[in-house]
Amino acid sequence: MAQDKYLAGKVAIVTGASKLSGIGAAAAIALAEHGANIAVHYSSNAASAQEVVEKIKSLGVQATAIKADASSPDFGTTLVAGTLKAFNTSNIDILVNNAGTAVMHDSAASVPADVWDDVFRVNVRGPFLLIQAALPHMKSGGRIVNTSSIIAKLGSSMLPVYGASKGALNSMSIALAEELGPKGITINLVSPGPIKTDLSMQGSPVAARLERNQHIKREGSTEEVAAAILFLSSPTSGYITGQNLYFVTNMLDQHRNLEPGNDVNLQVHIRQEMNTRRTEQTPILTITSPQGTGETLVAVHLSLLVATDLDIPNNNRYSMRFHAKPFAVLVLQIFRDYKSSRVYGFKYGESQQPLEAGAAVLSLQTEEDKMRQATALRPMQESTEDGAKYTALQNRIVRLEAQLKAVTSGQSVPTKGKGSASETETPQSESPLDCSCGRQIFNTNFSIHYDSGIHWVDLFPSLRELYFQASAEAESKWSQEKRGPVLIGAVSPDSLALAKYHPTPGEAELLMSIFFENVNPFVRVLNKNAFQSDMQRYRTGKHPQPELVDSLLFSIYGLAVMSLESQNAVDMFGLPKEWLLDKYQEAQEIALHRLNFIHSSEPAVFQNFLYYLVFLFERGSYRTATTLLGLAVRIAQRIGLHKDPSWFSYSPWMSEWRRRLWNQLILLEQRAVAFDGTQSLLSFPWDTQLPLNADDGAWNTSLFMKPSEIPSPTQDFTDMTPILVKRHVLSILCPVRQKIRTRPYPQQVQHIEAGFKEATHFFQSVGTDKQGLANFVQAVCEIEFGNLRLMAGQAVVRSGSANSEFLSQLYLESLALLERIASVRNSVPNPGWLWYLRTSPPVFAIAITLTHLCSEPANCHSERAWRQINGFFDEYGKENGTIQSASMAALQSLRETAMLSSGFPADRPAVAYSDDQYLLQSPENMDTDYLIQPAADLFSDMWSNSLLGGSLPTI
């Protein structure tokens, strides 16, 4: 921590803290050491509690002991009243609910009803009553920490009541986190395993069971638990709530905890000679029979693995026990830990044994698989003269080149030959939802940037002039700027220069935690497991590329700060958000130069460069980000990210990583196209695919996990993952946007309505567990399709064929869309919705509204319009500071012109209308069919996850 007495003046209540050898007393002392005044709760032993009080007072803070019965209904009020009186205060800052009781039983039948009630009164009702009594005195910044137990997770036949009570405490804490989070109060849990106290279970059957599964064969100490309670009570934990910190050493790894039974003992031998070229016939992993006969049951060969993928010490041996089930299950279990793309050479006894249905893919190789392996293992020696045979990979390259030639010459795209399965002809149907544009999103070979032909600014002649003027002013100002954030190029690569940019260890941990909570779920590139492994080596000075880790860390710090609201950044770090962003931008640039990122061919370096571009886009440095994006495209081509990794000898994990890097580049480029009017650089063909993971569970679990396959498309929203929802909506938006280009306005509306109906039909029947998410996604669809309607209408205005009635109707539609956006913004309880201010729907609606106000300043909806307009600019300015794109500068100029015409002040706040409010406040003759009109350019993972805790404003 940056300061030693960071809890000075805080008041804390710690229950169950009367024994110096216990967790409660250790926690109380730890809080006192950092300045907190402590109320020590005890139930009966006043002398022991006084010892703890004297120990705390010797640290220079106030302390008092308060007696209260944890099973009593007035437990909470007694403790709170005694604390307020003892310290002459009206505030309580920290609660540590540590008091608890446990009774062991041989069986469920031996548990009396009154014992059940007693345990639940102390372990569940007591903490709740104390929280209930303390909340009126707890302000923003308050901290609540409840002590649970590993038994709530693992269960124990001897502690069924205790485990159930702690499980209830866990559930209650998570529920309260939802209520208290908006108030700035956090509530978390710590769940100790075996801890050395006078109530230690060492020597008992419960302890023996736990110890069998521990990597660290000892009991934990009370001080170790207290350190965690101290952190969760500190100011640096302000962004952590509803979490449970387990004090265990691998006891949650259930799949390794196989009980004895009808088992087959097998020895798994793993050899690693990665620096030596091995042949296809040399197995790297074998499973032999338990009798020591040396008979090979399963062999996995080096040709099917990537060398860096199997990081296991030489000659390591594992003895595993598996139930006597079909060997297919055995193989699946082993390769859940040690990833492989294929298993073959399967033998059992003297004859070849078929695998059970559903697992045959593990043992069978197709002809295409063998061809891929052969292609990856040997250099291509085939002649390219006429009549010579091409390899499968060469044939595919030829086809792609033919497609590129056909497209650039205006010819029809050649189709694949007989037997091909992965590519299809471009559809030619004219139904509303057919599409002949490039659809990388649908696994064909061309760009997804179907909207690159026109920039939204081009639909407004007056705004277009302001846009070019703002662009010219920005160029001039940029060239003359002497101060401000350093931009990549003229920076020092001095390695010593980075030392001043590193945060304190506590701040670094907080920023990394924020990154993986807020950022990584949406910028879906970094594997958490791999990162943590790298950090362990980095901190001990054993990482072979510390400069690479430095660069990644500064990217993580910058994006983590970017995901915070301005006031939250000040509360957490005591510094303005803009100052922190300047600091980490400079650090990223220095770190990238140290890596020689322009010439590097390492995907990890390119990943850090992509993170830097995400940072620039989210900060609003559009001109610099768009320029550097062109460089990123060329680097990606040079290192082959645009090629299908399955045609090379990459592991499944490495292939997934490369696909994710390319996908992130696509999304960044789409951001530049949609918002800043640039032309796509990705119109050349490529044959890579989208990331395979429909959710990130397997991706973030282990480097040895094979990435999950995309689930089959479903018409039931309850079975949809966020990624599938995104792809479902994009699959409709893409053709709709293309079809409205060349159609008359009535047909455009027809296509938009058909697309909206198709995109939202499966929201009709949703379970209660996903109703909130479904409502949010449907609201986003309404906004995005509504934006399409506005674009179609503005195109009519641009052509000069719109009458006054049409102009008024378009004005009301744009105003209704702004109110819908404001309503959704106010219903999403996190800063993540702020990203939407930098996308097409709100700025396009603002442009239409301002244009109408310039020509007709005095209308019955003027005040309502100005509330939304000023609210938008206030929110945008608060999060973006002085940095803005030429598009936003042009809108600001148009706003000033409209204000001069209308005379409305610039300080009217935005009002989020509900449908009912809107109807009550609208004139009687208003056409309410246009209350909520739908729209969309981007549908990122964040839209589907915002209600579940996402925050980062990403692409």
From TrEMBL:
- The answer to whether UniProt assigns keyword ATP-binding to this entry is no
Q: Which domain of life is it from?
A: Eukaryota
Among PROSITE patterns, the record links this protein to:
ADH_SHORT
Q: Which UniProt keywords apply?
A: NADP, Nucleus, Oxidoreductase
Which SUPFAM superfamilies would you find in this protein's record?
A: NAD(P)-binding Rossmann-fold domains
Q: What's one GO BP annotation on this UniProt entry?
A: DNA-templated transcription
Compositional bias (Polar residues) spans?
Answer: 421-431
Question: What would you give as a GO molecular function for this chain, any one?
Answer: zinc ion binding
* Oxidoreductase found in the keyword field: yes
Q: Where is this region: Disordered?
A: 409-434
Q: Which InterPro entries match?
A: NAD(P)-bd_dom_sf, Sc_DH/Rdtase_CS, SDR_fam, XnlR_reg_dom
Q: Which SMART domains does its entry note?
A: Fungal_trans
Q: Where is the Xylanolytic transcriptional activator regulatory domain?
A: 625-697
Q: Which family does it belong to?
A: Belongs to the short-chain dehydrogenases/reductases (SDR) family.
Q: What is this protein called?
A: Xylanolytic transcriptional activator regulatory domain-containing protein
Organism for this UniProt entry: Aspergillus felis
